[in-house]
Amino acid sequence: MSHSTDNTRQERRDFLKAGTLVAGMALGPGVLFYGVAHSRAPEEGASSKVRWGMLIDTNQCGNGCNDCVTACNSENGLSGKTGPQDTQYIRKLNIKDLRNGRVHELPMLCQHCENPPCVDVCPTGASMKRADGIVLVDRHICIGCRYCMMACPYKARSFVHEPVTDQNPEVPRGKGCVESCTFCVQRVDRDQSPACVEACHANGHKAMVFGDLKNPESEISKALAAQASTEVRADLGLNTGVRYQGI
Fold it and tell me: Domain residues for 76?
């Protein structure tokens, strides 16, 4: 074998190494986000044996209380503004029972559907559902088409219109992407409750319960068994991961 051939092969190997390094730098954030999206730890994938869900008792949700919204904004680096072009992971809605005039405040967030319409219409696969039921958006492949926003019957998704700063490194955000509640997946993967649930309990309301819907011994499963709950737009057959009591 000639010396020139050896040099050529070595140059190719060096080129491939350099290309891999560049690709690693370019894909690093995407790989990191994919890891957050699909695993509870690098060595442990999200399991279909678990389905994360939330139960909200509107009877315990204090009128005028925004503790869950404030905690959500702080955890996820949101501005807290509520204009039509601002991101909101949780919106407080006033709903009225026309039969008796009773008014409830209802926190509306991504319902983490078992059959999410947002995932069905996404052309790139950016809208996705983990094995444990958490619905997410991969911002690295989101093209901002907003089909998912149109498909969501809960108006639970927002489009990022402006550059974002002061981000939580665990919650990547970006202009031109769609985003919504993630159940604070970065916390769930550390065996912590979502920020909204933690804040609700810390302030004594205890209107929110988070846990494994598939575990009959979990707090949420026992609460659902003890009292009737409601899915918003149950007629759509989406089998939401968020349930409500008191409405």
Answer: 46-245
